[in-house]
Amino acid sequence: MTSSVELIIFDWDGTLFDSVGQIVKSLKFAAEQFNQPLTDEDAKSIIGLGLPEVAQVLFPKVPELHEQLLKCYGDHYVEHSKGDVWFDGVAKMLKELQDLGVQLAVATGKSRKGLDRVLAQTQSARLFRATRAASETKSKPDPLMLAEILAETEVNAENAIMVGDTSYDLEMAKNIAMPRVGVTYGVHTSEVLNLYSPLCVVQNVEELHAFLVAQVKA
């Protein structure tokens, strides 16, 4: 990058938060209650999308069940996800980036209710200058949530970095010409993430931390 970095936007599930396993379990539980076939890989593949889009992709033949399926998923997730935490090193990374003066934000496929719950759980709301959930804007890979964050923080796209673990995250950033970084410890592989021309793809939080700090200091 040649432009200075003023803002770093993070996806939540699979990027900051170690919750992919529970999301898959809860989706499969909901599917089983309504006799809908669902594999682990299919459940994992939609992480990052908004909930209405999740239902449309996973259960296209039973639109009349979407509301019930999503409620069942959400209830199961909340009941069983209390052990979900940030990946090791995330808290340290966010604190150093904040200390360096860069603004931080979140762009997630979660609902606003779900995002507020985990922000409270991690006591991290104060870290983020702006947050956007899929329930209050358009789902990834539409870039609207990024455009809204840029407007709120008064930062240009070229001065921001989007960090995510899925193709939806990186495609969203590419759609608004925002530099992007992929992480492979969440959902999608480096082969998939590299299709969206990221600045780099990292294997763990330690590598992500070092790369982002270097970009901010450059």
Automatic annotation (TrEMBL):
Keywords: Hydrolase. InterPro entries: HAD-like_hydrolase_sf, HAD-like_sf, HAD-SF_hydro_IA, HAD_2, HAD_sf, PGP-like_dom2. One of its GO terms (cellular component) is cytosol. SUPFAM superfamilies: HAD-like. GO terms for biological process: DNA repair. Gene3D superfamilies: HAD superfamily/HAD-like, Putative phosphatase, domain 2. GO terms for molecular function: phosphoglycolate phosphatase activity. It holds the Pfam family HAD_2. The keyword Ion transport does not apply. The keyword Hydrolase applies. It comes from the Bacteria. NCBIfam families: HAD-SF-IA-v1. This is HAD-IA family hydrolase. It comes from Acinetobacter faecalis.
